[in-house]
Automatic annotation (TrEMBL):
Protein name: Mitochondrial ribosomal protein S16
Record-linked PROSITE patterns: RIBOSOMAL_S16
Stretches for region Disordered: 40-60
Entries under InterPro entries matching the protein: Ribosomal_bS16, Ribosomal_bS16_CS, Ribosomal_bS16_dom_sf
Family designation: Belongs to the bacterial ribosomal protein bS16 family.
Biological processes annotated in GO: mitochondrial translation
Source superkingdom: Eukaryota
Transmembrane intervals: none
Keyword Transit peptide on entry: no
Keyword terms, alphabetized: Ribonucleoprotein, Ribosomal protein
Ribonucleoprotein is among the record's keywords: yes
Taxonomic source organism: Drechslerella stenobrocha 248
PANTHER family listed in its UniProt record: 30S RIBOSOMAL PROTEIN S16 (PTHR12919), SMALL RIBOSOMAL SUBUNIT PROTEIN BS16M (PTHR12919:SF20)
Length: 139
């Protein structure tokens, strides 16, 4: 079976906390995981005045931060044995530099069934080509 790295939601209503877990792909979100490799708190927390003073009083210390804790060694292990991260976990791992960022594929208008959009794009290309010819000095 496929092993996935994904988020399991915990916490109170309107204040979620997620565990980054290793699970079989077909199990329920909140079922018992094979391993918990980290936590993610998506709600930004504003540091307390004592924490700001401990950091030297920088402006950077006053910015709200999201709490992400990850066992990097275990994450590398599970990626190495072929576990597939879900999209949110992929973005978190990309922030840590464990994997390359996942880019969204942009569909080319020719692949879409909306021919009106395709014709508009073709007209824009023709106009740009004429403008480019004038700019190069072909008079």
């Amino acid at each position: 079976m496929v092993v996935r790295l994904r988020l399991a939601r915990f916490g109170k209503r309107n204040s979620p906390v997620y565990n980054i877990v290793v699970m079989q792909a077909r199990t329920a979100r909140d079922s018992k995981p094979m391993e918990i490799i980290g936590t993610y708190d998506p709600i930004p927390k504003i540091p307390s005045p004592s924490e700001i003073a401990a950091d030297g009083g920088d402006d950077r210390a006053r910015k709200p931060i999201k709490d992400i804790r990850l066992d990097v060694a275990r994450a590398k292990y599970w990626l190495g044995v072929g576990a597939q991260p879900s999209d949110p976990v992929w973005r978190l791992f990309a922030m840590f530099g464990l994997i390359e960022p996942q880019w969204k594929v942009v569909r080319i208008p020719a692949q879409q069934e909306d021919k009106a959009l395709y014709e508009k794009v073709q007209k824009v290309k023709i106009i740009q080509d004429k403008a480019g010819a004038r700019a190069t000095g072909s008079s």
